[in-house]
Amino acid sequence: MKNAANNLVINPAKKVNPKVQVIIKYPNWYEHFQGLGFNLEAGPVQFDGVYTGTETRDRSGNQHLQQYLGYAIFRYFENLKPGKNFGGWVDTGGGNPLDRYAEQLWITMFAKAPEITLFDIRQINSNYNPNYQTSWKGTGTSFDFDEMKKPRKQADGSEFIPRKFSGVAGYSLSVVDKVLGGLGNPVGVKCYKPFHSTGEDFLQTYFGMIGIPVDIVPQFPENEPVVVLTETASFDKDIVAKIKKQLQSGKSVVVTSGFYKAMQGRGIENIAELKVTDRKASVREFAAGWGPTTKIEKEIIIPQVTYLTNDSWELISARDDTNGWPVLHAADFSKGKFYVLTIPDNFIDLYILPENVLNRIRETVAGNLPVTLEGPGEVSLFAYDNKSFVVESFLDKEVTVKVLLGLDVKQVKNLETGETKPTVARPAMSFRNRKFGKDAAVLEITIKPHSFQAFSF
Questions:
Q1: Which residues contact 157 (CB under 8 A, 6 or more apart)?
Q2: Domain housing 286
Q3: Are residues 161 and 93 in the same domain?
Q4: Contacts of 348 (CB under 8 A, 6+ apart)
Q5: Residue at which a domain ends, from 336, 366, 396
Q6: Quick one: pLDDT band at residue 412, thresholds 50, 70, 90?
């Protein structure tokens, strides 16, 4: 693909017009590019800019892409060629229900794409199916079907009734446009993905779906308080040395069970002596700190992780009768903290973990961000550098979540309505003069199905 790009596209185009800008549009399956000719190391350098396929359609379809991918992939490609990721690209493939199509447009805009391409004119000019409605229609959701289809007054006094996907797109973008001006530059926990790497496919986007703002980067970030490593990071032959340097500087590293297993026998045991075995556990009961255990409705399958007692310790445990295995594990190394997060065999089972388990994971991974989330899975948090944030729910039911801010934050402003809402101070738990977690100002918000709210503080 590198040679084809130069010899068949870029050089011939610039020979005709040296001032022409040649932009490559990448599709949405970033994990698999290297197997089909796309080169994310060379391509963004070759071309004058990139464009990002942010469509995720129906996650039950053949690709099984999670909604958060539309945000994560745009930010990833922006990190590949800063300032030259010119826009997001969405088709109508996720048009049933229409709320799902709107979500894809919103996600692209929350990633701060400078423009959006609605693919293609044939699709956009086609009629939407009026039966593509939902059980939550009419409940005050962000996408209001009845409001969208209302007749519009034209300049000549005539009425226009939106019946095409172009009308759905126009309405959806007008909804998100009410808050975009108040959002700064996106921030998130750095997740390192080396060039030409695979493993734990698209796991970063599942993290985004449980309320962890993720920022995928192609180089190991050396100045971040927390770095997240999935199995893809095992493609870096120097990764153990980079982890040690991060820990020796007093920072934290969170690795997945898939990463640790890929690194077994390659020096990772010098940091913490664990073993991700081939044995499996079927679990539905969990312990996260003090208090009673919590249970979920169905059993999930996780790998059994073993470790040397007192070399490291469980922060979250999965139970099966009186036996158990770590879900979140911690080890001290030099001045830093090394964490291992056990990933279920079916990544989507992350969404059904108990709230207290998800909250502890979010606190560990994203606690250094200015805003963090508490609540169930399938609710995403988008954070920005100007003290603003968005909470978006992908659940089919109304949900109440808590947003944790600095203790000095006394109120927040809804960017759509302008209304202010007070926060409630919550001291961190303490035991024998030792604090667990941090003091926080808590904002409780209720979000309608497949809807978002945006705030500043």
A1: none
A2: 186-366
A3: yes
A4: 206
A5: 366
A6: very high
pTM of the model: 0.96
**DSSP H or E run through 215:** strand 214-217
Distance between CA atoms of 164 and 181, rounded to whole angstroms? Answer: 27
Q: Does residue 443 or residue 433 have the better pLDDT?
A: 443
379 and 360, same structural domain?
no
Total domains in the chain come to 3
Using alpha carbons, select from 251, 204, 266, 211 the residue that is nearest to residue 229. 204
Instruction: Tell whether the model's pLDDT for residue 308 goes beyond 90.
Output: yes
CATH number at 252 reads 3.40.50.880
Residues 36 and 167 in one domain: yes
Q: Helix, strand, coil: what percent of the chain each, to 5?
A: 30, 35, 40
Do residues 160 and 200 both lie within one domain?
no
Written as one letter, the residue type at 407 is: L
Interval 97-101 mean pLDDT:
95
Dihedral pair phi/psi, residue 254, rounded to 5°: -115, 120
Q: Do residues 346 and 272 both lie within one domain? A: yes
Alpha helices (H) in 250-402, listed in sequence order: 257-263, 355-366
